[in-house]
Amino acid sequence: MSNTYKSAGVDKEEGYKTVDKIKKAVGETHNSNVLNHLGSFGAFYEIGGYKNPVLVSGTDGVGTKLKVALDSKKYDSIGVDCFAMCANDILCHGAKPLFFLDYLACGKLDSEIAAEIVLGMVEACKDNNCALIGGETAEMPGMYQPGDYDVAGFCVGIVEKDQIIDGSKIKAGDKIIALPSSGFHSNGFSLVRKVFPDFNEEFEGKPLYETLLVPTRLYYQDIHKVLPEVEVAGIAHITGGGLYENIPRIIGDGLCASIDASKIQIPSIMLELEKRGGVAREEMFGTFNMGVGMIVVVDAEKAEKVLSLLDDAYEIGEITEGSEKIDLKF
Length: 330
Description:
Elements: H1 12-27, E1 53-61, H2 65-72, H3 78-91, E2 96-106, H4 111-127, E3 131-139, E4 149-160, E5 175-180, H5 189-195, E6 202-203, E7 206-207, H6 208-212, H7 220-226, E8 232-237, H8 242-246, E9 255-260, H9 268-277, H10 281-285, E10 292-298, H11 303-309, E11 314-321, E12 325-329
Parallel strand pairs: 2-3, 9-12
Antiparallel strand pairs: 1-4, 2-4, 5-10, 5-11, 6-7, 8-10, 9-11
Helix pairs in contact: 1-4, 3-4
């Protein structure tokens, strides 16, 4: 019997099935700027309508949150997570996402699972007016076990050069406004899984995995509701490292983000993890978003305007003079 690619563990037909299942939905994210379709060696995206455009790019994955999804056999939210982690990052510079590409790796491809993951990306792209213009599916037996998947993505956005937000305009007296997260988002899941090894246990009347797998919140609609109305000095996406590591990324020398932690609305699942795991409060804030998925820094006189534009945003602190860059008061 002669060897074939299929006998080595790679089923090309399953890959073709995946493309068939996602092709129509992916096409629905395209606009007139997309000049070709799935199947080409490269994806074409035409840029127009900008005076001095700057491309802003970001790449990320889902981390070990994937383990929760795979063990729970619930795949629809993972694609949203992958897109959100990339798109929310470039949003911090005022960029509008143009297009997104995904990378899906596995040990043995199941077209149903792969399609479910990609269709989550499709829905997220639609929410952000972004085109899903390409991707790669890699079936790698021996590298991954059957049933294992890894997901990553790459997002490119655009912003006028004179409208780039980089934190350089942040000054003492500015207000810090929090936009709530939808949960853990896609960070800290190595600790989450250590404290909560049973994803099927009941939490607040439903299986725990349903709470853990709530997808990362997409902030595009919120931020681009604010930008035309208010000059924003800085935006930080609160991902791995929590407030301690992400807010200082936009704070200049001689300034400090002074935050009143008692104002932060911490999700009940995070309080449960803190209690059950015996995790110190400072460690929690240095690992998880603690309910703050994104922060916006604006002039004090503009804070009320921002709050009026966003339904669930609230103030958590202000910028002061100091050398520490962040002072989190518990």
